[in-house]
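Note to self: the last two entries modelled the partners one at a time, which told us nothing about the interface. This time every component goes in together.
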Amino acid sequence: MSSFVELCLRGDRLPEEIDDYVDAWHEGKSDVSLHKFLGMTRSEYNLWVVDPDVLPFILDAHRTGTDAADLIEEFNALPMAARAESSGKALQLARWLKDQGLWN
Amino acid sequence: MELALAAPVRFAQRLSEKYELTPRVDVRSMLEHYAEVVDAEIPIPGVDGVCLNLKVPGKRPRVVINSANPPLRRRFTEAHELGHIVIPWHRGTIVDHLDPEHVEAKDEYWLFEEEANQFAAELLMPSNWLASLLASTRDLSRCHENLCRECDVSALAASRRLSSQLPPNVVFVCEKGGEVEFSGRTPKTLANVPDWGSVFEPRVFHYATNHYVSAVGTRRLHWWTLPDKVTAVSTDPRPWREILDAMVADIGVPADDRKRFKMSVNGVLSGANSAMRQQGTHTTGAVTAACLQRFHDRNDLAGIANHPSFMDFVVKRATELTQ
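The predicted structure of the combined assembly is written out below.
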């Protein structure tokens, strides 16, 4: 049976459906621990318990074979970094969004 | 990084399953379920929308849709932005263009844009729904028209979606005011399509097996299916070289240019032959059909392609090449 993380990386489950998996683990008689049932390492599970919003980083860590904590740290350093066709366009847009009060 | 084609499509399917979405999908409500949505005229050219605070812990995403765009484009942008929100690895702030021109570069930005487009196309025009539509009629222009109407998408978005689901040897043109508004072909089709903005020529694919036409507003949607094999037999006793020499003389190619011209003819023929070999359909009939597509594309070879002996020449060459 595929774990939640595996299903989610294939697009067969939405990240928001993790709670259904947690419920299924509680209701079932699984021999494996919850983090293994979900497809996370223990450290990833610990990160997720503290802040469920880090789930996308855990998923991306599995997708790219990197460390979730590193991805979170990297992201937190530049959380508003804009991806755009060109850096000039990103800057222009950022200025406009700030003027409109839409940046934060 | 590899282009991950499947997951974005499956995310859209999963979302539709979970929220029981069917065409016409209320994409705006879905987007508002996940994000704060703002409509504003974005004064920066080419920007369809922007998605802020994607996956920022503790923050709700904010989506700004360029209200200067036409309604159907805004609707596709909304679906595209929803894709960025749902796909877990899209994060930060993404400035969106629906028509990535540099996708071949495959950097992360264009990869994310392509993934969000795949998500949007599947959400608005679900593949299972489209499969049922295609099974209900052979008239591709009618399918195109239904897709526009039932899914509430632009003719361009519908044509891209429809062509992605069809086999090779299908071409289409959207005609508006006597001009080609846009055109395209299905993957692995050899025939080139008329340039966007060029004058529409109704007989452009006169050798097609079928030609379907439907009207949507002021547009006419033309779809052609081109032959994938031609089972013709030549009764001309001459060898192909002799037929080619005679055709070249008939169409008035100056003596000095004949060698170069014949090299060009043989080059086009070799290209068609290689393409069929690569596609695994290396038969006389398939190479002959491929030659039809290749020769009728070229204005400089129109004289040869319309010559009464052209098919004799092609069949003889195709037979020799596939033996």
